[in-house]
Amino acid sequence: MAKFEVIGTASIPGRGGELRLLQRNDEFSIRIAGKAGELMNTRLHGSEDALAELACERIAERPAVRVLIGGLGMGFTLAAALETLGEDAEVVVAELVPGVVEWNRGPLGTAAGHPLDDPRTRVSLGDVGELLRREPGGFDAIMLDVDNGPEGLTREENDWLYSPRGLAAAQEALRPGGVLAIWSAGQDPAFTERLRRVGLLVEEVTVRAHRPGKGAKHRIWLAS
After folding, report:
1. Exposure of 30 in the CB half-sphere (CA atoms within 13 A)
2. I need a surface site. Which of 8, 73, 78, 79 has the fewest CB within 10 A?
3. Which residues are listed as membrane-spanning (predicted)?
């Protein structure tokens, strides 16, 4: 079997460290330099698809829907959101690492069907937390796929996003009846309670990393 080869590197703003894009034939992987394992892989995106589908299906019938995705990744959540929403929707993607956007505009884009080229897509470079604070009542749905979930992996600053203050900011950024969807690599009962303490109604859904029904079990919280 062919080996993965590094085809791109990108610095992580604010904290240092480096992301690496690797390719093996038509398979891509994103990893953190110096750490074992991978952050994401183009062959395992079932739960990223589900994050968008579960959130967007709840608000898709609204006119001129506006949604926010925190974390571009490999573009699969964005692609699934665009597939679910109407032609008058706007999908804002907040991505901290400029290199990740470049990869999605380049060699990585084919995997998800080049969703950045869709005219409904808007890219916001920077911290999704800052965007939440700037736009109260700005979104019908907010989907967060940052690090590996409530336990920050690439940036300690992401802990704020999952703190009571961060969750309150997300809640304030939602329009009436909106939905907050959060992806995680695993279960976190304490985080479920944290969502409830800030006044959100919470549903937990277990999804698989690979469809149909295969791969690791990931968790999605749907809060409204």
Report:
1. 26
2. 8
3. none
